[in-house]
Amino acid sequence: MADTMIADMPTNTNPTRSKKGGRTRKALKPTNQSPDEPITSAGVVATPPEDAAAGKENHESLSQPKKTKSKKKPDLSSNFEKELEEMQEKLQQLRIEKEQTEEMVKARDEMLKQKDEEIKKLQKIKEFKPTMTFPIALSVGDRELEKKEKKKGCPQMKRPSPPYILWCKDQWNEIKKVNPEAEFKDISTILGTKWKTVTAEEKKPYEEKYQAEKEAYLKVVGNEKRENEAMKLLEEEQKQKTAMELLEQKEKDPLKPKQPMSAFFVFANARRAALVSENKSVVEVAKITGEEWKNMTEKQKKPYEKIAKTNKERYAEEMEAYKQKKEEEAINLKNEDEEQMKIQKQEALQLLKKKEKAENIIKKTKENRQKKKQQKEEKNADPNKPKKPASSFILFRKEIRKNLMEERPGINNSTLNALVSVKWKELSEQDKLIWNEKAAKAMEAYKKELEEYNKIAEVKENSKA
């Protein structure tokens, strides 16, 4: 069969390619054939005649496009990712909301704490009642209140208004009648322009009024300053005197009633004597009384509770009486302090006067001393009197100073003096002897001149006498 098929197949004798038909197909390369596969030659497969028809049918069926229904699979992965993203966004929002709520809670807690602290402070201030009286502090506070009252009631304490403002007060109503619709700015500009045209004679009464008010104001202010200075001096003296007294005073008031004991402590005091007789320690007594109190019935506790109740009522009555007494004492002390303030002001003014007198005396004594010194100097200042000679170091300095100034122009005095002292120390004893001899000669000459001068002065005095 294979031989017949090969013989029947047409063969192309021309090895050259035909130019017709455009492109040509390349021959397939022969592959290693297995013994079971059919024999092929020149790229054509030898098929049996029985299978040829079936092959054609299969070829036709393959060449036709298959009509298959493409079923789209649902995108599960994309839906899952979207759901995940939504869930993550919701989680983030919940976290943010949680953080915000926590911050709000913290802020609220802080605000509540601050309010509680403020309430406690206010309660302490209300409950505080000093056991000691401080007359100095009270006097200062009363003095400040008096000042405020004076400033409110007394018109002299106000600063005097200048002449321009006094003139404006007089002219305001007239300009307002002429210009009823004008505002404050417009009226002030009109007054300013009009004030420039006012003559000196018209300004005189306003200026005189201003000066009179100014003098009165300065007097009041000066008196107040004087009183303040005097009070400061007095307060300093009183502080020094009362410092030790305040330290010696007791802070606790012995007259203040003590707080009553509770029912348990009443029971413990009654039971303590028996337990102490049994040689029990304080800790053991406390433990035993606590256990016994817990195990007691209400009927057994009733007598102790009655005693505690009566003590509490008595304490409340005593406390009310104590408070009333303290209030009365405070009123009396205030009245006494007011009276003392008047006395203290007078004492303070006296102290200030004494201080001023002492300062004036010191000034006068200083001035007198200076005058006496000047007079003595004028008397003793005789141009013919010989002057004391310079020492050996000063003579050395005069000569060395010139040389150093020439060597180092623009040198400071401090550095120059330092250099001179260094060079003087570096000098040997023989060199120093030269300067000492010069100073000694000058001293001898000075003594001779002074003796002659004194003799002449004695002769003059004798001649005058």
Automatic annotation (TrEMBL):
Domain called HMG box: residue spans: 157-225, 257-323, 386-454
CDD domains in the cross-refs: HMG-box_AtHMGB6-like_rpt1
Family matches, as Pfam families: HMG_box
Composition bias type Basic residues, residue spans: 17-28
Coiled-coil region(s): 436-463
Top-level taxon of the source organism: Eukaryota
DNA-binding region location: 157-225, 257-323, 386-454
GO cellular component, one term: nucleus
UniProt KW Repeat keyword: no
InterPro entries the record matches: HMG_box_dom, HMG_box_dom_sf, HMGB6/HMGB13
Region Disordered, residue ranges: 1-89, 359-393
Gene3D superfamilies recorded: High mobility group box domain
Record field: compositional bias (Basic and acidic residues): 80-89, 359-368, 375-385
Presence of the UniProt keyword DNA-binding in the record: yes
MF (Gene Ontology): DNA binding
SUPFAM superfamilies: HMG-box
Record key words, sorted: Coiled coil, DNA-binding, Nucleus
Protein name as it appears in the record: HMG box domain-containing protein
